[in-house]
Amino acid sequence: MPGLPRIRRLNETSMQTIDKFSFKGQKAFVRVDFNVPLDEKFNITDDTRIRAAIPTLKKILGDGGSVIIGSHLGRPKGVDSKYSLQHILPRVSELLGVKVDFAGDCLGESALRKSAALQPGQALLLENLRFYAAEEGKPRGLSDDASDEAKAVAKKAEKANQKEMAKQLASYATVYVNDAFGTAHRAHASTAIIADNFDAGHKLFGYLMQNEIDAVEKVLKDTARPFTAIMGGSKVSSKIEIIENLLTKVDNLIIAGGMTYTFTKALGGKIGNSIVEDDKLDLALSLLQKAKANGVHLVLAVDAKIADRFSNDANTKFVPVDEIPDGWEGLDIGPQTEKLFAEIIEKSKTVLWNGPTGVFEFENFTDGSRSVGNAIVKATQKGAFSLVGGGDSVACVNKFGIAEQMSYVSTGGGALLEFIEGKELPGIKAIRGY
Ligand code: AMP
Rounded distance, CA 318 to CA 331, Å? Predict the structure, then answer.
């Protein structure tokens, strides 16, 4: 199981921390992200997300409060037993150390009755919030050929339903706690709208949420320099906004992974059959210019590990990154690039890593990502603050067994990326106002 994010050297930047709040006699509605992967027999295959919310739930119960736990699971289109939170109830009870009760309808009579009857130290898990379209506030089942007017009416109605749903969920509790960073970029009933029903003193971030916010703000606002960001992954197109925002913040921007070849081609290099976005060549050049104008050291690979097909068993060799023969493709960085990147990373005081340097899913193309990971470990040991986040780089640090040696490993995918892009996240704004 991957390690949990830990609290380490984080700032207390916002007002609403649950440490300062006594939950004695309070009923807390806690929005968590228990969207865990299940196998075909509904066994949990990775309980990281449940474990991540346990400190918050235990704090509330330990204070003498009670909790009403709300979450989504998967993407149901309506009520669907496949996505029932009942599947995870035993594990939640086990990790929390109390027998958690269950309400089979998050808006039904049982939720109302059971939440009203909760005693200090007791916990209730509600059925999947996304069984209701109102949670997301988007109409479901509208046919594509519905008129624009019908769509507008349905949309308005669902927004009204969303407000009502938020109001009912809020009515179960005296205080609202959001600990679901993974959905903080969504303005859903339980992640954002609900907060309008509580005064400023009764809406709080849970520990996980607070740690995620503190980690990102430590990197982007309270930055120790030099600040190096390593952006990997497959495509420039999915990282444009982040890269553009980082170009106003970092000292060094390392570009790695599949997007390397769009930059290399834009600069006139030969990239063979490497992954490329031909419609983003101008963009790549403009990012290079922006970096120059902002005084940012934008670092590209100098050599590549190339393969004669997209396979772990392909023939391989190392070549300069701009001399890849036809029929070959770059699937990882080469040793000279590893050294170049490591020297920059090891001198940094703040490091952000998002995305692998190559196709790390193939064992023969993991070396580049591993060497970036090891350089970050060294920087962290020398006092740098390191934040790893966004899907595949988290998978990398877990795979290499170095997650514990990073300052912070984010649990957020899309939410983290939007936060780094500089966007306001509805789940955060609903509580602290920005
Ligand atoms: P992203 O979701 O954009 O962070 O991309 C992660 C994916 O990028 C991983 O599945 C990697 O296998 C893939 N990737 C990284 N480098 C390359 C490359 N050189 N060629 C093709 N795919 C790559």
Answer: 10
